What does this fold into?
Amino acid sequence: MQYINIEGKGSTITFTNIGDLEEFDFNVDDLNEDADLEAIFEELDAYAQSGEINLTCDIKSCKTINPEEIETLSVEKEQYEDERKLTLDDFKLINIPLTDIDELIDSAEIGDILYLRVEHGDSFFRIEFDEEEHKELELGYCDCSKELSNFDLLAKDYYDYVCDTIIPEYLIKTYKDTSIDLYKFEPTIIYAKLFRVVYDKEAQTKVLEKLEVPAHYFLDDSKTIDEVDDILEI
It folds into this structure.
């Protein structure tokens, strides 16, 4: 067996269809008061932290690494032995199609509310794979320029969080003898936002409409809004 180690700044991006908010006793059209917004985001955060939201809602989630903030990239022939430092140039980057978010939108009902949650922090992946099956070192990479036009990127800004990132879990889905041997993630900033599913008559398809409510931040209170925006590249 071989092991690929990736350490650096990364994110967990999760889209959750939370329906019409009835379960939370909120009407999204009445969310005008800061207290109402604070209450719903904190309740959603509690559901997400407990994992309860995973049991009751449709979810699409993705773990990413920022290629420009990789601190360590290495391969080992045996566990914790013969570690060899690498760079991204040593890997073949395989483009990952952007299908998960579209599938979630397609399965949603008009009027449903989608909860976007971006957790950003320190990530470490240790990936175990069969050396015989895995002849060439590969990593998943989300190249939005191959999937979306410039207009799409402006209209669908929720893709920004996965565009141009490394997707380590690509290996797990592709090779039968590949698994995550170790994964550590310590979020420092959590960013949350709400979208509504609407029907675009011109495009004749369902799309996401950003709700005009302020984004919400959790965790590191020492960060200013500008610093958070820089981190998340909003």
